[in-house]
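Q: Got a minute? One more chain.
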Amino acid sequence: MESDGPTLWGAARSRAASRRLYRGVHVPLDAEVDPAWQMRSALKRAGPGAVIGGLSAAILHGIAWFDDEFEVEVCRPATGQGRNRGGIKVVRADLDPGDVTTVEGIPVLSVVRTAYDLGRRPPEWRALGHLDDLLKVTGLNTSDLWAYIRAHPATRGVCQIRGLIPHIDTSSESPPESWLRLLIVRGELPKPEAQISLYDQSGHEFARFDLGYRKYRIGVEYDGEEFHSTEQQRLRDKARDAKTASLGWVTVRVRAEQLRNDPQEVVSEIRKHLWDRGYRE
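A: Always. Here it is, folded:
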């Protein structure tokens, strides 16, 4: 074991020179603990035979969207030992030899196995966000995912991932956009196009809708709390909406709280605009 890596407490040289990351696992005081370091530390605690799985595996494979306070998921064989501890979640699964690879020297579930696992976990809107993100950054194609599902057809949640694959869109730029797209489709509205750009006469892109319908000139924007909460941002949104309206577009803005608390109202508003502009079911 390298002296500057995560250390089991029994092997730690000095309590004063380290800090506890997990029970029984310490790191140097000056260590910058990134996700990979957290996972190495969790594996130290989990012992031989454990691999990184679930959302933790997706993080190692490069996904862009995850909570900094994520819980490290460790996967062990179905007959393996170990239990959940603070910050570490233990999952047992039957794994094929090809299900495990390495990233930065860390044993981790393969991209396709990670997609298979995340896509089966409810709720489906969260699963779709993970699938969009994972397939975007890894280049995994849906035909390979379908092949894996056909080879592993009798697992809990497999019906969910089968239903989600047709809705995967790697042009999605955030999980909430994925959730919103799924909400629209589940509301029996036509599937919206993602990332619709509008250009001025000089060819400059002055607006881009998260989702929308070119035929009906309807744009749908997810207004996340992080990017649309200041007065300056709201003024910029208002100016952009005025410019797109002058070209005949209507903008439906969906706030984070609406998506959480009143999703059917979102669907109803989009349906109304579609109907007003000639769409018929």
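A: The chain has two domains: 7-167, 175-276.
Q: Perfect, thanks.
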